[in-house]
Design brief:
Layout: H1 2-17, E1 24-26, E2 32-38, H2 39-44, E3 48-51, E4 56-58, E5 71-77, E6 83-84, E7 90-91, E8 93-96, E9 104-105, E10 110-112, H3 119-122, E11 132-133, E12 136-140, E13 149-167, E14 173-192, E15 195-198, E16 216-225, E17 232-235, E18 248-252, E19 255-263, E20 278-279, E21 296-304, E22 322-325
Parallel strand pairs: 2-14
Antiparallel strand pairs: 1-4, 3-12, 4-11, 5-10, 5-13, 6-7, 8-9, 8-12, 13-14, 15-16, 16-21, 17-20, 17-22, 18-19, 19-21
Length: about 325
């Protein structure tokens, strides 16, 4: 009897002395980056990002049970209302406690990651082996018409916690971990220049001789580029240019029909190099830098050269590449 009783007491002593106590602290956060996104995508589609650590780190207990009275509070503040870019434009975003866009976290308001059934329980903040950190998730708000550049915001996250840091036999709390601290978290995105282009096909129709083709006039190229961007527009020489003189040519089999595209309503050839390009400042509608929302309109005319022999009948085709350079 004395031997069995001594063994039971020894086992209880080992269980109590081996109990680890959880402990939390504030450490450096891991920056969150949305990466490099085009201005058009930023405006039209929500983007997602996250950080694996928002600054709160907790070691685990061998036995841990969070209860309703346990709390892990975070209060997020900032000097701005979103990521700010080089021209003062702002990209707004929402902060979430989980990666399912649930548990939105409002700025300047204490948010409880919670005890029983809360986010702290879901991520096993003080359960299981190893140290655990608290992640945060972000989703941008669509509709931001912004210039290109680096956008960033520094969040201040004030953490405070009060929870049972170790549980003994019978669910007895062996002690509470109470503390606080502040972490900073950088959230960033690089916005790149982009354009949306509307360029209709050029159709010369049919004619029995080269002098019978009517010039194409009244057509336009519409370009919507990133807000504040200065750019140029070029038209390639097509797939079959004349090596000397640079005329564009349509092809049908082994036969060619020379033509060209000219700036506005004039006779200056619209090309792809140097002064042959068109600057955004020369648009007929909304000249200047890009608007982001709203197009700049470029007039042009196209003609078949009449100083060439009439080629054999056929369907003549060429492909011209329009490029925008920033």
């Amino acid at each position: 009897m004395r031997v069995r009783s001594k063994g039971w007491l020894l086992g209880l002593g080992l269980l109590c002395s081996g109990q680890a106590m959880a402990a939390c602290s504030v450490a450096a956060s891991v920056p969150a980056s949305f990466g490099s996104i085009s201005s058009m995508t930023v405006r039209t589609a929500a983007q997602a990002s996250s950080t694996t650590s928002a600054g709160l780190t907790c070691t685990s207990a061998l036995i841990s049970l969070l209860v309703p009275s346990d709390h892990f509070y975070a209060t997020i503040t900032s000097a701005s209302t979103g990521m700010v870019g080089p021209t003062g434009d702002v990209i707004g975003y929402t902060i979430y406690g989980t990666n399912t866009a649930s548990f939105p976290i409002a700025r300047n308001t204490q948010f409880d990651f919670g005890g029983t059934g809360g986010i702290a329980q879901l991520i096993g903040l003080i359960a299981g082996p190893g140290a655990k950190t608290v992640p945060l998730y972000m989703g941008t708000i669509t509709g931001s018409n912004v210039a290109a550049g680096l956008y960033s915001e520094t969040l201040n996250i004030a953490w405070s916690w009060n929870y049972c840091s170790g549980v003994g036999l019978g669910g007895i709390c062996l002690g509470r971990d109470i503390g606080n601290g502040t972490a900073t978290l950088t959230v960033s995105m690089t916005v790149t220049n982009d354009c949306q282009i509307t360029a209709p096909n050029i159709l010369f129709g049919s004619a029995p001789v080269v002098s019978g083709f009517t010039a194409v006039t009244g057509q336009t190229i519409n370009i919507a580029c990133t807000k504040g961007s200065a750019y140029t527009v070029g038209l390639s020489d097509g797939q079959n240019p004349v090596s000397v003189g640079g005329r564009r040519r349509m092809v049908s089999g082994t036969n060619y029909l020379a033509y060209d595209i000219f700036k506005s309503a004039g006779t200056t050839r619209w090309g792809s190099v140097g002064a042959a390009r068109r600057a955004s400042s020369t648009a007929e509608v909304n000249p200047g830098n890009g608007l982001g929302i709203g197009s700049q309109v470029y007039n042009y005319n196209a003609r078949v050269y009449t100083d060439q022999p009439t080629p054999p009948a056929g369907v003549y085709v060429d492909n011209v590449v329009l490029d925008v350079g920033f």
